Amino acid sequence: MEYTQIGELTVSNLALGCMRIGNKSEEEVYQLILAALDAGINLFDHADIYYGGKSEKVFGQVLANHPELREKIVIQTKCGIVPGVCFDLSKEHILKSVDDSLKRLNVDCIDILLLHRMDPLMDINEVKEAFDELKAGNKVKYFGLSNALPSQFELLSSVLNVPLMVNQVEFSPAHTNLIDQGIFMNIKTPLATSTDGNLIDYAMMKKISIQAWSPIRESLAHDTFLDNQDYAKLNEVLDELSQKYQVSKGAIVVAWIKTHPAKITTVIGTTTPVRIAKMAAGMAVNLTRQEWYSIYTWDKKLP
Ligand SMILES: NC(=O)c1ccc[n+]([C@@H]2O[C@H](COP(=O)([O-])OP(=O)(O)OC[C@H]3O[C@@H](n4cnc5c(N)ncnc54)[C@H](OP(=O)(O)O)[C@@H]3O)[C@@H](O)[C@H]2O)c1
């Protein structure tokens, strides 16, 4: 496993996303956490809205009954999406959301808090005040954003007293917007359009940790692209590499994401313990440059 430093936290470059655990039993979630720790994963990603709070709650029940786990794990959660209504990054909402997450998770402190999506109506001074209170009250150690543009990092950073250290965004072989524009620059193709404000370059310059969500799923599709006929060409390439390296196709995707020099953290979302180890095997695979491009070009031709 590879690790990244976020402030004083040593954080694994593979994270377990907890978006889908809200309907699992406490014992199932306990086994999932143990499987992640066995694989070297110590970063667990939550949000206040996952399963309407049930994902944090069942995770918190496990922590209450196994307090020895707390010092072994880094807990990240998010706030700012109000399901079915809007985005809300008001001071009042941020503070309330964190208090609710702390209660559900049964912890005194959240290690990393991300603002889930940017709220065009946010007052940046209210965000500053909320973060100052959370930091002063030892309720949150470190802060970051999710699905945010470099300009939004700059805007918030112009008033915040704390650094923004993470940006969690969608990235996978089926969703490559983060790197397309840099390759197709100045060519008449939609791939040359920036949808992310050149986030990777910005994050590398500012030492912001990028976290890739939905690594084996296109967010608009319902299921994974692994073994999915709509992604037959991608599966052909992954099959070949999975045979060469004797790991699963999911592991090849993990290897593909970690190859980028931005040292992107992959946030996997499986709720099946045995799949965690299989995906984690990808952290030991070093793809050649040609192999990396063979995955990138499954649905496009290089200029
Ligand atoms: N910041 C954001 O806006 C945002 C948005 C979405 C997600 N996220 C975060 O990213 C995490 C990961 O997202 P995701 O759940 O979409 O990730 P994913 O790892 O791309 O997909 C996981 C899903 O694929 C299924 N799956 C099917 N075949 C699999 C295989 N061979 N190996 C592994 N899994 C397989 C899993 O089922 P089983 O559970 O049955 O194994 C699970 O339902 C979430 O938990 C959340 O923490 C963040």
Features:
18% strand, two-stranded antiparallel ribbon, TIM Barrel, 8-stranded parallel barrel, 11 helices, 12 strands, alpha/beta
Please give a structural write-up.
The protein is globular. The mean pLDDT is 96. The strands form 3 sheets. An 8-stranded parallel beta barrel has the order 3-4-5-8-9-10-11-12, surrounded by 5 helices. Strands 1-2 form a two-stranded antiparallel sheet. With 303 residues, the chain is α/β, with parallel strands linked by helices. α1 crosses α2 (54-65) and α2 (54-65) crosses α3. It has one domain: TIM Barrel (Alpha-Beta Barrel). It has helices spanning 26-38, 54-65, 91-105, 124-136, 150-157, 177-184, 199-206, 232-245, 249-259, 273-280, 289-296; strands at residues 3-6, 9-12, 14-17, 43-45, 74-79, 81-82, 86-87, 110-115, 140-146, 164-170, 209-213, 265-268. The structure holds NADP nicotinamide-adenine-dinucleotide phosphate (NAP). NADP nicotinamide-adenine-dinucleotide phosphate is lined by residues 17-20, 45, 146-147, 168, 213-217, 224, 226, 250, 267-272, 275.
